[in-house]
Amino acid sequence: MTATADPARLRAELETLTTEAFRPELAEIDRCSTLEIARTMNAEDATVPAAVAARLPQIAAAIDATAERMARGGRLVYAGAGTAGRLGVLDASECPPTFNTDPAEVLGLIAGGPSALVSAVEGAEDSRELAVADLTAIDLTPQDTVVGISASGRTPYAIGAVEHARRLGALTVGLSCNAGSALAAAAEHGIEVVVGPELLTGSTRLKAGTAQKLVLNMLSTITMIRLGKTYGNLMVDVRASNDKLRARSRRIVALATGASDEEIEAALAATDGEVKNAILTLLGKVDAPTAARLLETSHGHLRTALETAASS
């Protein structure tokens, strides 16, 4: 069981955090017009990309290390509580339709489990033990990457996840929005995107949440680019699970190859709708079985498969 925190100590700790700072100049924002509040909020949000830009070297290093692990069969696991946990689950859930990943390849863990996505689970974020249990349940291995997410950088669940993962030899990343955070210190790759105090004191679903979303977009998207899930800026591993995505699949093949509609339909039919394979049959002038073999040999990298096809 996790011991109950001393309220006075916790209050003093929160008062040291940039994300919890009170802004006297906004103390009467509720008296402003709606348009004035919207302008103020928009101006606050505009500062977030610069804060992310200041941490691009650390973000890139974490991505390269993550991609290296995933290329060897490792998984990407996000762990967080509240808004941070929800953002991790969101990013993980978007990888299968976007990059045709296995649902078990990119995972999002949130303190308190799935029910915490829509309602708060009392005390869940305060438990390091719960994080250990959640990682144990998915059989975490040294090949995996665990990204602890916490705006404050002090959330026990996120820190516990990173500490446990590091003890097991997994790659660890700590994403927070305060400098000198315990989460960044616990992780091999600490990423501290300092966005400053929020419009509403302590409401870290605002700028901090936006910053976390931007970084998670980079972590998953660029990792997938490194793994060969794209061809240029085309999502050639997209999973066509609905009418919109089926239409997008045909458009991607058209953009990549310049082929006619009839050629595209034939290529997709021959490759069971696999966009990457269809492009390879058209550009590499090979049949579907050869395309599948070349992509397997190139570990899914279309450019490499195309070079092999051209030289054979």
Automatic annotation (TrEMBL):
<keyword id="KW-0456">Lyase</keyword>
<protein>
    <recommendedName>
        <fullName>N-acetylmuramic acid 6-phosphate etherase</fullName>
        <ecNumber>4.2.1.126</ecNumber>
    </recommendedName>
</protein>
<dbReference type="InterPro" id="IPR001347">
    <property type="entry name" value="SIS_dom"/>
</dbReference>
<dbReference type="InterPro" id="IPR005486">
    <property type="entry name" value="Glucokinase_regulatory_CS"/>
</dbReference>
<dbReference type="Pfam" id="PF22645">
    <property type="entry name" value="GKRP_SIS_N"/>
</dbReference>
<comment type="pathway">
    <text>Amino-sugar metabolism; N-acetylmuramate degradation.</text>
</comment>
<comment type="function">
    <text>Specifically catalyzes the cleavage of the D-lactyl ether substituent of MurNAc 6-phosphate, producing GlcNAc 6-phosphate and D-lactate.</text>
</comment>
<dbReference type="GO" id="GO:0009254">
    <property type="term" value="P:peptidoglycan turnover"/>
</dbReference>
<feature type="domain" description="SIS">
    <location>
        <begin position="66"/>
        <end position="229"/>
    </location>
</feature>
<comment type="similarity">
    <text>Belongs to the GCKR-like family. MurNAc-6-P etherase subfamily.</text>
</comment>
<comment type="subunit">
    <text>Homodimer.</text>
</comment>
<dbReference type="GO" id="GO:0016835">
    <property type="term" value="F:carbon-oxygen lyase activity"/>
</dbReference>
<dbReference type="GO" id="GO:0046348">
    <property type="term" value="P:amino sugar catabolic process"/>
</dbReference>
<dbReference type="InterPro" id="IPR040190">
    <property type="entry name" value="MURQ/GCKR"/>
</dbReference>
<feature type="active site">
    <location>
        <position position="125"/>
    </location>
</feature>
<comment type="pathway">
    <text>Cell wall biogenesis.</text>
</comment>
<feature type="active site" description="Proton donor">
    <location>
        <position position="94"/>
    </location>
</feature>
<dbReference type="GO" id="GO:0097173">
    <property type="term" value="P:N-acetylmuramic acid catabolic process"/>
</dbReference>
<dbReference type="InterPro" id="IPR005488">
    <property type="entry name" value="Etherase_MurQ"/>
</dbReference>
<dbReference type="GO" id="GO:0097367">
    <property type="term" value="F:carbohydrate derivative binding"/>
</dbReference>
<dbReference type="InterPro" id="IPR046348">
    <property type="entry name" value="SIS_dom_sf"/>
</dbReference>
<dbReference type="GO" id="GO:0016803">
    <property type="term" value="F:ether hydrolase activity"/>
</dbReference>
<keyword id="KW-0119">Carbohydrate metabolism</keyword>
